[in-house]
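Lab notebook page, bench 4
Experiment: in silico fold of construct C2
Operator: M.H.
Input chain length: 233 residues
Purpose: comparison with the prior construct
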Amino acid sequence: MVLAVALGGSDAAAQQSIIDGWSWSTLVPSIAQTDILGTHLRELRNEQERRTTPPPDVSRLGFTPSKARRSANLAAFVDKTRAVDPNGAADLQRLFAEGDIIERIAAAIAPVGLRTDNLADVYALWWITAWQATRGDNDTLGRDMYAAVRAQSAKALNGAGGPARASDAGKQELAEALLVQTALIDAAVEQARGNPARMRQVRAAVAKGARGMGLDMAGMEITGGGFVPNGKR
């Protein structure tokens, strides 16, 4: 919910953009290797059976952000969106003109122990936010849950290879695409509160988009130890 607050007055436009689905297909760069978290989810049961695993190395997933790259990334997001959804592009442009959205997100997520300059943190935030959205929820969870999903994300991203080996520029592009997407999802859920029909649209749109990222949100639940399979398919 803190992300919706960070977006200020842009939530109505953000909600419609999420429902239209433009952000899922246009923002995330190819280095995301969108099957990695889905593959990791399928391996979770075996992981639980082993019970103990070494802590993941999150240092390979950090990067030094550049303000110039950020400006270029946000402009590119608008351009990519304009090709498929001019109205969505205009919404994004207005949102970005209100101030540095990444800095606003960084301030909003710091209290739960997450950062915007590490892919493990960003993936964890996106994963949790999208999962909650498919349940019509955007409550802030405890730090232990964010930390557990951060560890899961780090393992998956390191295992995929590409994201960990990417340049700072590549990592920043992926992180900022996911952060923008996360903020829009959170805002869409917040705006749909009290409107069951609209909330169903948001839930369905986010579930569909998550499947495109390799995740079946209906097949998992979150615990203090992170995401676990729930047997639903």
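Observations: Residues 2-229 form one domain. The two ends are 28 Å apart (CA to CA).
Next step: discuss at group meeting.
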